[in-house]
Write a structure and sequence with these properties.
It is globular and about 50 Å long. The chain has one domain (about 5-160): HUPs (Rossmann fold, 3-Layer(aba) Sandwich), CATH 3.40.50.620. The longest helix is centred in the middle third of the chain and has 17 residues, at about 95-110. Helix 1 links the parallel strand 1 (about 5-10) and strand 2 (about 30-35). A five-stranded parallel sheet has the order 3-2-1-4-5, with helices on both faces. The protein has helices at about 15-25, 50-60, 75-80, 95-110, 130-140, 150-160, and strands at about 5-10, 30-35, 65-70, 85-90, 115-120. Helices cover about 40% and strands about 20% of the residues. It is α/β, with parallel strands linked by helices. It has six helices and five strands, in the order βαβαβαβαβαα.
């Protein structure tokens, strides 16, 4: 059984992330989405628990996608969950250089047990990121075309029905 871990902060999960999960679910027997805390982010739109519950709700009817909260290094979460692969979404050349470095480090610290697979989101989703969605939210803009309806509902609730 081929299992892949898709780690990220997913604050919030976007249609770009969803596209990567969809592609992964066609390539792997099981996709484990690991909602990770990012210590570099000073403020979050959603708590870890809120993110976990939203993503679980989005994938409640998809048999080969599961969701968990991951702690520590992504490669350790992959090994703990018997994943020999980590999937990463790449939006452009600037992402690719970083992802290549990370892939090599993950392979090294896992003693060659975990490989990284990079996937590209559909072209219309290349510019969609959680940080863009958060910024648009702060500016009072409509983000519905960038996120799943479940996430959009939660964003509107955060805004008090805006």
């Amino acid at each position: 059984m081929r299992k892949v871990l898709y780690p990220g902060s997913f604050d919030p999960i976007t249609k770009g992330h969803i596209n990567i999960i969809q592609q992964s679910s066609l390539l792997f027997d099981e996709v484990i989405v690991a909602v990770m805390s990012n210590p570099l982010k000073k403020t979050c739109l959603f708590s870890l628990k809120e993110r976990l519950l939203m993503i679980k709700d989005i994938y409640k009817d998809v048999n080969n996608v599961s969701v968990l909260v991951g702690e520590g290094a992504s490669v350790d979460v992959a090994l703990e969950n018997e994943c020999n692969y980590i999937v990463r979404g790449v939006r452009g050349l600037s992402d690719l250089d970083y992802e290549m470095q990370l892939a090599q480090i993950n392979r090294d610290i896992s003693n060659n047990q975990v490989n990284t697979v990079c996937l590209f989101a559909n072209p219309e989703l290349i510019n969609v990121s959680s940080s863009v969605v958060r910024e648009l939210f702060k500016l009072g803009k409509d983000v519905s075309k960038y996120v799943d309806p479940i996430v959009n509902t939660r964003i509107l609730e955060k805004k008090g029905g805006f």
